[in-house]
């Protein structure tokens, strides 16, 4: 039988396999269209909506605080176009990390299919969490969040944002929106898709909620806290794939995960339950972005508490499963006891006369033993 040669033909254009293999190049071409549009006067007004941040306001400089006018931003419907463009950028960066970093490591480590998908997931998320955590920490330090925690609720509504703050939220929304098409590009298993959709939906719900309700200060602090804990988990899982005896990172992550949930609840209750509840301006006003009313505060706290309870429930189940697997692995094999005769000795003679635990015909001696006895 002749050996079939491996086909070197590329898949048909716009076919399923063609899109999967070349999705990064296709998306790059689409993003390039918006960038080229900036070069022409006719299309520049439309392209600039996708590429740059919109809704900026220039505040005059005060003699006491600054010498230059400050440029701040608020949100609007045009932000959806900006989120779409940077979603394309996120898809391109995702493909670059996958091809030039993760795929090379996978070829060296020779992972199984299950470990291969989990390694890719942790590799992508650890890179994103590290970048977002460092970026968010820089914003917290530059805007004096750490030295003055009352900034979380003071002077609400926080409808005006700095360039870094708004770009951070646009990038977060773009990244988590890009996770939807990645389910198709990465050939995610059908049984894993519901879990991924819940995971992505929770991120988008809370980030968009903080952005639209002008709780961007509180949202930034909680995101940095959460991203740091998640980064530790995924980087520990990467080390675990290279050495399955590595458990120190998971132990540290378990402690920080519980502390992170407690800090999230404390900061949320302190900001929404006490800080905003004692504010003088408690009137619903869409024009100024003021949502400081009792119903909104209850809804915000309820969503945060339910999410934290859900995460703790998943965490407890995860830890119980790990402990169960660890105890099963550590348990010594059970040895069968030999039957004891009337004299108190184990009947080893019966086992010696049998084959694989079965006694020979009529329980008699083997032919060799009978020959020895007759002689």
From TrEMBL:
Show the stretches that span the lipid bilayer. Answer: 26-53, 83-102, 123-147, 167-185, 197-214, 220-240, 252-274, 294-316
Where is the stretch described as Disordered?
334-375
Task: State the oligomer form and interacting partners.
Answer: Interacts with SEC61B. May interact with Derlin-1/DERL1.
Q: Does the keyword Plastid apply?
A: no
At the top level, the lineage of the source is Eukaryota
Q: Where in the cell is it found?
A: Endoplasmic reticulum membrane
Organism placement in taxonomy:
Eukaryota, Metazoa, Chordata, Craniata, Vertebrata
Q: Which UniProt keywords apply?
A: Endoplasmic reticulum, Membrane, Protein transport, Translocation, Transmembrane, Transmembrane helix, Transport
Q: Tell me what topology the record assigns in the membrane.
A: Multi-pass membrane protein
Pfam annotation, one family: TRAM_LAG1_CLN8
InterPro entries membership: TLC-dom (IPR006634), Translocation_assoc_membrane (IPR016447)
Any single Gene Ontology cellular-component annotation? endoplasmic reticulum membrane
| Name this protein carries in UniProt | Translocating chain-associated membrane protein
Compositionally biased spans, kind Polar residues: 353-364
Q: What is its main location?
A: endoplasmic reticulum
Give a yes or no for keyword Nucleotide-binding in this entry: no
- GO:BP terms for this protein? protein insertion into ER membrane; response to unfolded protein; SRP-dependent cotranslational protein targeting to membrane, translocation
> What is the organism of origin for this protein?
Octodon degus (Degu)
The record's comment on protein family reads: Belongs to the TRAM family.
- What residues does the TLC domain cover? 117-326
